[in-house]
Automatic annotation (TrEMBL):
Protein name listed in UniProt: Phosphoribosyl-AMP cyclohydrolase
GO cellular component: cytoplasm
Binding site residues for Mg(2+): 98, 100, 102
Reactions catalysed: 1-(5-phospho-beta-D-ribosyl)-5'-AMP + H2O = 1-(5-phospho-beta-D-ribosyl)-5-[(5-phospho-beta-D-ribosylamino)methylideneamino]imidazole-4-carboxamide; 1-(5-phospho-beta-D-ribosyl)-ATP + H2O = 1-(5-phospho-beta-D-ribosyl)-5'-AMP + diphosphate + H(+)
Gene: hisI
Keyword Magnesium found: yes
Domain of life: Bacteria
Function noted in UniProt: Catalyzes the hydrolysis of the adenine ring of phosphoribosyl-AMP.
Subunit structure: Homodimer.
Organism: Terasakiispira papahanaumokuakeensis
Amino acid sequence: MGSSTPFWQALESAETGTQRPLEEALDALAFNEAGLIPAIAQQHDTGEVLMMAWMNREALETSIQERRACYWSRSRNRLWRKGESSGQVQQLYSIHTDCDGDTLLLKVDQQGAACHTGRRDCFYVALTETHAEVDQSPLVDPNTLYGNP
């Protein structure tokens, strides 16, 4: 019910074309206690939801500057440019926030597989009333993505 900060509340009733400085928007984002915000990657032309990852402010600023998706890797504890080791790059078309600034939506052009399993997207396990079912085959052997033949 409503936005969490005055910045987002003011935009709720703003007219199309209203602009605010980028720094103000970045300052108003709801990063969690680890300094991260969820980022959903979506194929720009088909609407296909590809993956969810985390961004810190530096990853977000890097993505905006480079026009290429850059995330924060919690396992590596460093910035991670999507495709840096696999070649499965995400060219950035746009970044949007949700209405209260606690989730990002990146519209990208995904080159090949988005998932580390070699699948097009990370959402390949369907949950039904009775079971979980893999409903998507890998596009490429994940071992070849990361140089482990």
